[in-house]
Amino acid sequence: MSVARRGLYRRGVVTPEQLHDRAFSLDPFPIWTQLRHESPIFYDTHDRVYVVSRHPDVIKAFSDSERFTARLYRKTLGAVFGPNLLVWEGQHHVDQRKVVAPLFVPTRLDRYRELVESVIDELLASVDPNGFDLVKDVSSLLPGKVIVRLLGLPPSDDQRFHEWYETMMQGLWNDPVMRQRGREAHSALHKHIDPIVADRRLVPHDDILSRLIAADVEELPSFISLLLTAGGETTDKAIGNMWTNLLAHPMQLDVVRSDSGMLDRAFDETMRHSPSLVYLGREVLVDVDWHGVNIPKGGELRLAVGSANHDETVFERPDVFDIHRTDLHHGLEHRTAAYADGAGHIAFGAGAHFCIGYALARMETVTVARMLLDRFGSLEAVGNLPPLRIVGPSWSTTTLPVRCATA
After folding, report:
1. Contact of 256 with 225, CB cutoff 8 Å
2. Helical segments of 130-217, H only
3. How far apart are CA 31 and CA 345, in angstroms?
4. How far are the Cα atoms of 126, 194, 247, 334, 403 from residue 383, in angstroms, in the given order?
5. Is the CB of residue 47 less than 8 Å from the CB of residue 18?
6. With CB atoms 3.0 to 4.6 Å apart as the test, which of 139, 260, 275, 358 could cross-link to 239 if both were Cys?
């Protein structure tokens, strides 16, 4: 495909205010297109960050650890639950990633597929097919319950882990009160897990917690908090976003109803078209001149993953949701973001800090969709379909009322 930028777009000067107004949060595509054409490196004076909007540029920032670092997350994730894999750099990061990453590759996760299915079955058995909220009753609860079971903890821990997850997520916002509550939630998780860890050291179980202990993972409670928050947030929103897209495109919903093998493609296209996180951050390690913009050492990049996934030099009709598209890599993602069968979405990042939980997010999202269709035949929205909306770095809906289409 030609790399020339093409197509119609709204010309004019983008202002920082536009990146923070309600119109953008509901329909970011026109502004993203304009940024890619005219201001691929855009300084947002409101947040004092440099917005990077093109697909190859975002991949470059993810992959070039000599010039860009993820250590800025010390101010958010690190401030809530301390040192963790996301903020470590260099050989220390490499060594720790080698310890935990193998536990979450697809071949190792397959042994837990029945466990995931049992959690989903439990959730779906509790909803009313005549009307339930797919977000509040299913997607927001599923990731935490799965983490609890993977760690080998009892179902009685579900509610407390869900509350800790929500409080720690709120603690990532730049609000001193919420930040303190987030720290307290992490401390409570730490206190709860410590005696269980001591027991597992003496008597290992067939669970991921025992394997993390055996692997001698550093800052284990912090890793669990990272798994709960980063992994839970991505999966929760991926489920809601995929179903929002399918309900908005009934013919494509019919396709996945008839062929559940197409659900993986629906996941791929959702993570491209409407990823759970539209922004990820990096800090600049040296002065950089990029597309004529000088970014000083210490400057913060806002990598617009959402925009990059809509780059018209990479994807045809990028703003259209299409599970049949042939220019997108279909299947498991890779940290290189380089594939032979098409360009990859970069919702899970790329490079050294590529998301460890990518395969678990796919397993949960695709499996719950398959089981929803198996149980209910199909779903339909109740009333108007709620829009996806950008809030901070996230893109999602907080509610999705549905019912069995044959109820």
Report:
1. no
2. 134, 142-150, 158-171, 176-202, 208-214
3. 20
4. 22, 47, 12, 39, 10
5. no
6. 139
Pairing type for strands 394-396 and 389-391 reads antiparallel
* Separation CA 389–CA 397 (nearest Å): 6
The secondary structure of 347-395 as a DSSP string is: TT--GGG--TTHHHHHHHHHHHHHHHHHHHS-EEESSSPPPPEEETTEE
CA quadruple 211, 216, 217, 221: dihedral sign: positive
pLDDT along the chain (407 residues), means of 10: 50 88 96 96 97 97 95 92 90 91 92 96 97 98 96 96 94 92 96 96 95 93 92 94 98 97 97 97 97 97 98 97 96 86 92 93 98 96 96 96 85
Sign of the torsion formed by the C-alpha atoms of 336, 338, 344 and 345: positive
Placement of tokens 């409101």 in the chain: 46
Q: Are strands 49-52 and 300-304 parallel, antiparallel or unpaired?
A: parallel
Q: Across the strands, what pairs with 313?
A: none
Q: Is the dihedral of CA 281, 167, 395, 377 positive or negative?
A: positive
Domain ranges for the chain, please list them. Answer: 16-404
What is residue 315's three-state secondary structure? coil
Q: Which residues of 353-381 are buried (b: 16+ CB within 10 A; e: fewer)?
A: bbbbbbbbbbbbbbbbbbbbbeebebbeb
Q: Write the DSSP symbol of residue 345.
A: P
CATH number assigned to the domain covering 16-404: 1.10.630.10
Q: pTM of the entire structure?
A: 0.94
Written as six digits, the tokens of 5 are 């930028």
